[in-house]
Design brief:
The structure is a homodimer. In chain A, a hairpin with a 2-residue loop joins β1 and β2. By secondary structure, chain A is mostly helical. Chain A is about 75% helix and about 0% strand. Chain A has 16 helices and two strands. In chain A, α4 packs antiparallel against α9. In chain A, strands 1-2 form a two-stranded antiparallel sheet. Chain A is globular. The interface between A and B is large, with 58 and 58 residues.
Chain lengths: ~300, ~300
């Protein structure tokens, strides 16, 4: 079973465990719609890779952390897509939750997914008497996860910065995307009983890279490629690295962040494999042939890039 | 310091501890708006009363549980008041969060309050090395809290039942209101190191009583008395005990539930005090003079009750 399959199996298992027969049927269907089939599941994959190279010794705790991360991410997508934010119709190539079901159900789905993220971790402690070591790991994982999501500097703060008139672009992006990547790498270490701090820089660099990649794809992408409408940053007046740095500047910064991420991987048995994963992921995030093709097109029709950025 | 003052002090302390300087200012202001000044703080009061009569021995853990309960309750109010649900303008006698700030901020405020509820409990475990006993209490409290809030049968499920075409009124009300009352009594016992199960019936009965009281007040109340618009159940076509049982039937059921709650208090040193608190609270919930006055008024003008129910 590779990492992707392991995450998928854990997602199904935990969903069925928490969402009992008595769950209101529409809410349950909406939660399932938000979670399956998933997107790239990049956060739990990163988390699990870190846990594995850190010598994971409690697979059920590792699994629960992966699911918790994906639940938090999915909750934020469901709420971000709602009419009062992005009013998005498409997500992961299918209709968004509020379009498929209703606005009230989308609101509740996000709330329920946040609570469920904690539940899957807490459930690891209640099944049987667990060791003090494992109870502390679970508490520390929840602590880091909350920091990645909550109001002071997590993804909720990232969204809230969009509502402020004065925004520091890096602070905004660090909160909006970077925070959950940092939570992923740190939680991976904790799940394996390792210290989280040496893994912080990897999460931060990859989070920043991922956000910039999103900005770049928002300019160069096609809806078929990324599964959601393009040109959204410009349309919603959101701060974007592609606006501030220009498209070529943003692509350079993206490459620098990927190099930094690869360099930051602490000395460990799987260092080589993890670095290879990072380079492979960077090609998926901003396919360089796609980027070059866009630059060529702009040379022919310069108006288009001005409209999109 | 009485229970009310202790809760207020704990709320302020935890808010300032979690909401650091770097929190986006509008989000922070909106969270404060949702929390201060509070309503009756009935759930944390009930919780704390149970913890005290159960012989609480870890005051910081007790405080954190009270705050967590109030945060979850406040989160549900902020989201319930939003345009896609009740579209309420008033709450606790002042403007609702989406009216005072904006819809996106109200959505994020609810999310952040849910996460913060877990944070205040988790923070008790990270300040210093805590004993295994206390780590387990915190995990168990979070487990019970999640059950009171989450999708299968917590307050989120309660709201979701409103979106179903077929609803079991008691299942709906048990989830919508009862679940967080049950969490309150059970968490109170756990915080004090006692077994939660003997306290379940108290939470269930009081939760049911509180919901019926809400339905009764929705019919007989004045906006000045309850701090939010009346006649909302009828207007939103929500299931209501006052509709099903009639007003007098609902009042009888309310009295029965209060008696049941008082009887269910387990044998403990403070049993007498706790029972007195319950009777006093019941008078606040459905003031019998107010109820009698309404019945008199209906005799004079029978149309009004038909319109309101």
């Amino acid at each position: 079973m590779n990492i992707e399959q392991r995450i998928q199996a854990a997602m199904e298992r935990h969903f069925n465990e928490v969402m009992t027969e008595s769950t209101p049927p529409t809410l349950k269907a909406a939660m399932r719609h938000a979670l399956f089939p998933g997107g790239a599941r990049i956060r739990p994959q990163l988390y699990m890779a870190v846990a594995m190279v850190s010598g994971e010794d409690a697979p059920l705790i590792t699994d629960a952390g992966a699911v918790a991360l994906e639940l938090m991410h999915s909750a934020s997508l469901v709420h971000d897509d709602m009419p009062c934010f992005d009013d998005a119709q498409l997500r992961r190539g299918k209709t968004t939750v509020h379009v498929e079901f209703s606005e009230p159900i989308a609101l509740l789905t996000g709330d329920a997914l946040i609570v469920m993220a904690y539940q899957v971790l807490i459930n690891q402690s209640t099944k049987k008497a667990i060791s003090r070591k494992h109870a502390n790991r679970l508490l520390e994982m929840m602590h880091v996860l909350s920091q990645g999501v909550g109001a002071p500097s997590g993804i909720v703060a990232g969204q809230a910065w969009e509502c402020e008139s004065k925004v520091d672009l890096w602070k905004y992006q660090r909160a909006k995307t970077g925070s959950l990547f940092t939570a992923a790498t740190c939680m991976g270490a904790i799940a394996a009983g390792a210290k989280p701090d040496p893994w912080r820089e990897l999460g931060e660099s990859l989070g920043d890279a991922y956000q910039i990649a999103d900005d770049i794809r928002d300019v160069i992408g096609h809806v078929e490629l990324i599964g959601k409408p393009v040109g959204q940053d410009a349309e919603h007046g959101r701060p974007s690295a592609a606006q501030v740095l220009g498209l070529e500047g943003a692509n350079k910064e993206f490459q620098r962040l990927i190099e930094n991420a690869a360099r930051s991987v602490p000395d460990c048995a799987g260092r080589h494999i993890l670095r290879e994963m990072i380079y492979k992921e960077s090609e998926r995030l901003v396919p360089q042939p796609e980027y070059e093709r866009y630059l060529q097109m702009v040379k022919v029709n310069p108006q288009r890039v001005e409209k999109a950025i």
